[in-house]
Specification:
It catalyses: L-threonyl-[protein] + FAD = FMN-L-threonyl-[protein] + AMP + H(+). About 35% of the residues lie in helices and about 25% in strands. The chain is α+β, with helices and mostly antiparallel strands.
């Protein structure tokens, strides 16, 4: 899906077992890319969007993602919209969901200490190799070599959406134009797919995004506005 993936396994396990765990994570993420990439004409999501695949013929994963996207459309008053670009593009949910599934599988397989970073969407569990909680830097929206804040924790899903490489690329689905007002939105919770979608929706809302995020009592957030202000919830797990 046009992004880089990194995995840090901090468990005290034999190297062969760690290698096997890592191989399984990347096998799953390659499977997700083959199924959901909007850059690949032969992906399942593209074939479904062109009408070449019926819903009844779709994989269980595609049906699940479509159901979740429909639920998120309702929960965000339509600001999370998998059809905002005109065609089907569930990437605003899929990237976080795929990483969350990978982390859940790692946990079930015995990896209680790991950090998975999928293009800036990060899922951490347990402790780092130093024996301390993980530290997750949130990239500065104008300086790729800097962070605007650092989060810490042992069970965090951290998703960031905004105009980094591609500028204002998140569309306001009501107007069909790039959303303005928020340069980046970071949402912190325990489910990375949900956090990813909420971050995307808040960016699409523009100036209304901060107040909407304030109402999500089970999530924390940090926002950088287009005019450079940093806003964040009071209980954000800052390092």
């Amino acid at each position: 899906m046009g992004t880089a993936i990194s995995l840090d396994l901090a468990d005290d396990l034999p190297r062969a077992e760690l290698d096997e765990l890592a191989d399984e994570v990347f096998r799953w993420l390659r499977e997700v890319d083959a199924r959901f990439s909007t850059y690949r004409a032969d992906s399942e999501v593209c074939r479904f969007d062109r009408g070449e695949l019926l819903l009844s013929e779709a994989s269980a994963d595609l049906r699940l993602v479509l159901e979740r996207c429909a639920d998120l459309w309702g929960a965000t008053d339509g600001f999370f919209d998998g059809y905002a670009t005109g065609g089907l593009d569930p990437s605003g949910y899929v990237k976080g969901w795929a990483a969350q599934v990978a982390s859940d599988r790692l946990l079930a397989a015995g990896s209680t200490n790991h950090c998975l970073n999928a293009g800036g969407d990060v899922r951490v569990r347990g402790l780092s190799a130093s024996g301390r909680p993980w530290r997750v830097g949130v990239r500065h929206p104008w300086d790729p070599m800097a962070t605007c804040l650092v989060l810490t924790g042992s069970d965090l899903a951290v998703a960031t959406s905004g105009g980094y490489e591609r500028g204002h690329h998140v569309l306001d689905p009501r107007r069909g134009t790039p959303a303005r007002g928020l340069r980046s939105v970071t949402v912190v919770g325990t489910d990375l797919g949900l956090a990813d979608a909420y971050a995307t929706a808040a960016v699409a809302m523009g100036a209304a995004g901060p107040a909407w995020l304030d109402r999500l009592t089970d999530h924390h957030h940090a926002i950088v506005t287009d005019d450079g202000r940093l806003l964040h919830s009071t209980d954000l797990p800052l390092a």
